[in-house]
Amino acid sequence: MLVLMMTWTRRQLQQLLLLMMMLMVSFVVSYDQCPSSCACLGNTVDCSNKQLQDIPADLPSWTEIL
Fold first, then answer.
1. Which residues contact residue 65 at a Cβ distance below 8 angstroms, ignoring those fewer than 6 apart?
2. 35 with 47: CB under 8 angstroms?
3. Can you give the pLDDT at residue 3?
4. Per residue in 7-61, pLDDT tens?
5. In terms of CB atoms within 10 Å, which end of the chain has fewer, N or C?
6. Contact indicator for 47, 38 with CB cutoff of 8 Å
7. Could you give the C-alpha distances from 54 to 25, 31, 57, in angstroms and in order?
8. First and final CA of the chain: distance in angstroms?
9. What is the pTM of this model?
């Protein structure tokens, strides 16, 4: 992998760094908006095995998989 990175252009490395930063920010935002009784990762909100009586009312708008 290091050898491959040495052949990348400066622009490619900047784009890779930007992508990595965007992914990190999305995980932080996801964590902050996740209902306290669930676990979130990406567009998935996992509330399984929590013995909930109802669907949490505070589901994030980005939820695609519940």
1. 43, 44, 45
2. yes
3. 57
4. 778 888 888 888 888 777 665 555 567 888 898 887 889 999 989 999 888 888 8
5. N
6. yes
7. 30, 21, 8
8. 36
9. 0.50
